[in-house]
Specification:
helicase; Helicase, Ruva Protein, domain 3; 13% strand; AAA_lid_4; two-stranded antiparallel sheet; Holliday junction branch migration complex subunit RuvB; alpha/beta; Arc Repressor Mutant, subunit A; globular; single chain; 14 helices; DNA damage; binds adenosine-5'-diphosphate; Rossmann fold
């Protein structure tokens, strides 16, 4: 719309700010409002209700899973179900033990302390956290060298909720101090469809049933992506159609944004393409793949790979990552006879037959 570059970029900047506000407005606010993850919801319901019955604070809770599946939303829900307040911080923000001590000493009894990306917490803060989680106290070291003294400090009983995209990167002692771990898994298309229809209701968007199925199928099993696609499709419908999102409008919009039938984005496609074209289908290590596509190994491992494995495109084997027949076909290539058949959820310990022939 804007014909000068300056105007265009300011429009984009406004859109970005508005989008994050919208994301917050779309967060579910109670356990019953939370769509999908039935197991996690049931388990949490028991943990929270049990604690309420006993009149104490619930055990510390760890939530693990890929980005955008509702970990932060769930932490907020936990605090609101308990009727307490949520204190929010993140692993990278806790660089020194003092940062954590300040956070802990401000807690009020029953508070929920949410530490996002808890696997990135610095070592000294982590050690302080052990004691706080176990005994609700910390030892603050004052001074340096032989004159240093350690002052014990009481911490109000609290519940720690940690979120991580890499539970494997957590140290054993930290993991052991959580009483319950919630594993968030990808959502299936009908769940995403319900999430989309709910979001459309909140945003006042006219979203048809078939169109919601179309968007749900391309959302990589991830609510954050579903909501993002909905906003992009809404833009398209407002600008090029009459604001109503029909299936054809959704398809045309998603084509403009380069989202394919399975919801694979550019990075997913380059990972697949590198695996198949540069490494003959593998096996190849994640870090080698990451270098080949010019991305951080962490992003490839935590964002792309879980979905590609779930979609049956990549198999994890003890020798590295392997492209399944579905991956070759996705790229329009004929799979070699030895390529694994693929399918949902190929596990490390059960490599498909014929993989190593
Ligand atoms: N179960 C759900 N129902 C409805 N919307 C959800 C659900 N889970 C996540 N969302 C949406 O996805 C967005 C991202 O969720 P978030 O909790 O920030 O994910 P994470 O912390 O795991 O990255 C939220 O703003 C919310 O709009
Ligand atoms: Mg989050």
């Amino acid at each position: 719309m804007g014909d000068s570059a300056g105007l265009e970029s300011s429009v984009t900047a406004n859109f970005v700010a508005a989008d994050s506000d919208i994301e917050a407005s779309l967060r579910p606010t109670s356990l019953t409002d939370f769509i999908g993850q039935p197991r996690v919801r049931e388990q949490l319901q028991l943990v929270l209700t049990g604690a309420k019955l006993r009149g104490g604070t619930p055990d510390h809770i760890l939530m693990s899973g890929p980005p955008g599946l509702g970990k932060t939303s769930m932490a907020m829900i936990i605090a609101s179900e308990l009727g307490t307040s949520l204190r929010l911080t993140s692993g990278p923000a806790l660089e020194r033990a003092g940062d954590l001590a300040a956070m802990l000493s401000n807690l009020v009894e029953g508070d929920v302390l949410f530490i996002d990306e808890i696997h990135r917490i610095a070592r000294p803060a982590e050690e302080m956290l052990y004691l706080a989680m176990e005994d609700f106290r910390v030892d603050v070291v004052v001074g340096k060298g032989p004159g240093a003294t350690s002052i014990p400090l009481e911490v109000a009983p609290f519940t720690l909720v940690g979120a991580t995209t890499r539970s494997g990167a957590l140290t054993g002692p930290l993991r052991d101090r959580f009483g319950f771990t919630a594993h968030m898994d990808f959502y299936d298309p009908p769940e995403l469809q319900r999430i989309l229809l709910r979001s459309a209701g909140i945003l006042g968007v006219d979203l048809g049933e078939e169109a919601s199925a179309e968007i749900a199928g391309r959302s990589r099993g991830t609510p954050r992506i579903a909501n993002r696609l909905l906003r992009r499709v809404r833009d398209y419908a407002d600008v090029r159609a009459d604001g109503v999102i029909t299936r054809d409008v959704a398809r045309a919009a998603l084509a403009v944004y380069d989202v394919d039938q399975l919801g694979l984005d550019r990075l997913d496609r380059s990972v697949l393409s590198a695996l198949v074209r540069s490494f003959g289908g593998g096996p190849v290590g994640v870090s080698t793949l990451a270098v080949a596509v010019g991305e951080e190994p962490g992003t490839v491992e935590e964002v792309c790979e879980p979905f590609l494995v779930r979609a049956g495109m990549i198999a994890r084997t003890p020798r590295g990552r392997v492209a399944t027949a579905a991956a070759w076909e996705q790229l329009g290539l004929t799979p070699p006879p030895e390529a694994a058949a693929g399918g949902i959820d190929v596990r490390v310990n059960e490599p498909p037959q014929g993989l190593f022939d």
